[in-house]
Amino acid sequence: MTAPTAITPDVLTLPRKAPVGADGRINIVGLPRMALQQALIDAGTPERQVKMRLGQIWQWIYHWGVRDFSAMTNLAKEYRSLLETHFVIELPELVTRQLSADGTRKYLVRIAGGHEVEVVYIPEDDRGTLCISSQVGCTLTCSFCHTGTQKLVRNLTAAEIIGQVMLARDDLEDWPLPGTRGVENRRLSNIVLMGMGEPLYNFDAVRDAMKIAMDGEGIALSRRRITLSTSGVVPEIARTASEIGCLLAISFHATTDEVRDRLVPINKKWNINTLLSALREYPKLSNSERITFEYVMLKGVNDTDADARRLVQLIAGIPAKINLIPFNEWPDAPYQRSDWDRIQAFSDIIFRAGYSSPIRKPRGEDIMAACGQLKSATERARRERAQISTDQPSHQ
Ligand code: SAH
Ligand code: SF4
Question: How does 299-327 read in b/e, with b if 16+ C-beta sit within 10 Å?
Fold first, then answer.
């Protein structure tokens, strides 16, 4: 494999054509800067003004969370009505919000076509993390993952991906007051792409949405506060560094191909060795930007001392931390969570080998908000209805 190249700005700045909505107006949300700039010119913004207008509109929408052109008071009235004629500022719809006893919030978000995705906000002492989805369902079928039991319905658009962040900031009242510069003390300080879907199978939309999240004039989250989790789509890993630049987490979960084939079937395409070589070449490797290896603890499947020792041998030379995830059970799941003393013993071996090995505390368990438990509510309701009808006692 050739070494991945550095940032490729031409890929990032190529104007993509703005999608036109049913009433002919373009949704600004989710458009990369260059595409929005072009759309503003097409709508009649004089070219000599376009950079300034773009900056102003961007700031209203992404820094202050404004959804109404008429509130953009530093734009002339006529220009605001021109914007109104050509554009909309449209987010997916927030359908429900559940609050866990531990403060975790789970949102159900409806996107075009009536599909639904789940989004989870996890408050901690030093941060507030939003776990967002990149697809409805998933094409992959990891055997321990609830989302994996649901077929892929469709990829989310960039608007629907960044829209999840914007909806959560609405709910958390996390937008700075218009006119002020607010990047400190955010309730939503980190994003993880660990909800539904495989982000690297929806690369362009994920990239465009995360570029918006990182843009300094808008939401302005540092790239170090965004983590993309992949099951191991090897050909897209180098692009993640060069085109997005966020942190990377790998759903590793096993230390032999035989077990990983069963748990994470994409391993049959790109096995452990191929994956590790791609990671060794990941261009931003440094101690401050370690790759997170996620490892779900499944009782009697991947949790022996020998597994822990193999794991540290396999990743030798890669600046890494290992995140142990106690399996989050879901109805009819074919696995059980490893016992706590087993998880602790596994963690100790990794720790003694020099790696940080935090055990992820299950959050929001009372509202089924934990990693890998997300599944669209419509799909769940459909299954539950089917279940109820088979459980009905016969009256004959
Ligand atoms: N598709 C991506 C991101 C979404 S899954 C990926 O697979 O990495 C986010 C993380 O949750 C992954 O590490 C995944 O393996 C893990 N996960 C899935 N189901 C789980 C479960 N039931 N319990 C614990 N972790 C789970
Ligand atoms: Fe898809 Fe990730 Fe679940 Fe695997 S773990 S089925 S890749 S969402």
Answer: eebbbbeebbeebbebbeeebbebbbbbb
- The burial class, CB within 10 Å (0-12 / 13-18 / 19+), for 22 is exposed
Q: Strand, coil or helix: what is 382?
A: helix
For residue 47, indicate whether it is catalytic: no
Tokens standing for residue 250: 């790998």
Q: Which helix (H) or strand (E) holds 229?
A: strand 226-230
Q: In Å, how far are 45, 68, 83, 144 from 41, measured between CA atoms? A: 5, 20, 11, 49
Per residue in 165-221, pLDDT (tens digit) is 999 999 999 999 988 887 678 999 999 999 999 999 999 999 999 999 999 999 999
- Name the closest-CA residue to atom 12, ligand 1: 251
> How confident is the prediction for the chain on average, in pLDDT?
87
List of domains in the chain:
26-88 (1.10.150.530), 93-383 (3.20.20.70)
Q: Which two tokens stand for residue 163?
A: 């829209």
DSSP letter string, 185-209: S-S--EEEE-SSS-GGGSHHHHHHH
Say yes or no: CB of residue 328 within 6 Å of ligand 2.
Answer: no
Query: What does the angle CA 266 – CA 272 – CA 276 come to, to the nearest 5 degrees?
Result: 115
Write the pLDDT tens digit of every residue in 233-274: 999 998 998 899 999 999 999 999 999 999 999 999 999 999
Bridge partners, 235 (sequence order): none
Measured by CA distance, the residue closest to atom 4 of ligand 2 is: 142
**Which residue's alpha carbon is at the smallest distance from atom 3 of ligand 1?**
194
> CA 327 to CA 319: how far, in whole Å?
25
Tell whether ligand 2 has an atom less than 6 A from the beta carbon of residue 231. Answer: yes
**Helix runs in the chain, H state only:** 9-13, 33-42, 50-58, 77-86, 158-171, 203-214, 237-239, 257-263, 272-280, 305-314, 340-352, 377-391
CA distances from 12 to 17, 168, 199, 204, 210 (A): 13, 26, 17, 10, 12
Give backbone dihedrals phi and psi of 9, rounded to 5 degrees, phi first: -60, -30
DSSP 175: S
The two structure tokens encoding residue 233: 């789509």
